[in-house]
Known about the structure:
By secondary structure, this protein is an alpha/beta fold. It has one domain. It is built from five helices and three strands. A three-stranded parallel beta sheet has the order 2-1-3, sandwiched between helices.
Amino acid sequence: MIDIVAVMGMHRSGTSSLAGILKHSGIYFHESNEFNRFNKRGNQEANTIVEVNDNILSSAGLTWLTAKANTNYSISEKDIKMYLYYLENAKKTGNNACIGFKDPRFTILCDLIVQILMKNIIFILLAHIDIQYKLLCQLQKDKRL
């Protein structure tokens, strides 16, 4: 059974729209933003997830605007606790429904976070075909696909 759906992709690639569709189809997006100055229907990002991912990026002295793949990011105990707290609350509040979340930062950090925290997860990536291919190869290599 899939417990978590992570919607990933770059800004303006349709991730907010897809997250909204999934949300209205029964996947529970806990504390997702219903309004955003750039998107009147909301970007469907949860502030907790954004904050934790920003913390992880800053561990390498980077921000979302300067982030790079294949950088040695570190995840602190506090970050792990925040992710677990978010996921546990989402499960309780969502009556154990499948949880969805969306944050573009997760596109860069997913490998690190999934190794530590998540098991039954499905990725939905909106990106160029070469990025999708690289991610699929990595997931197959790690025996997660």
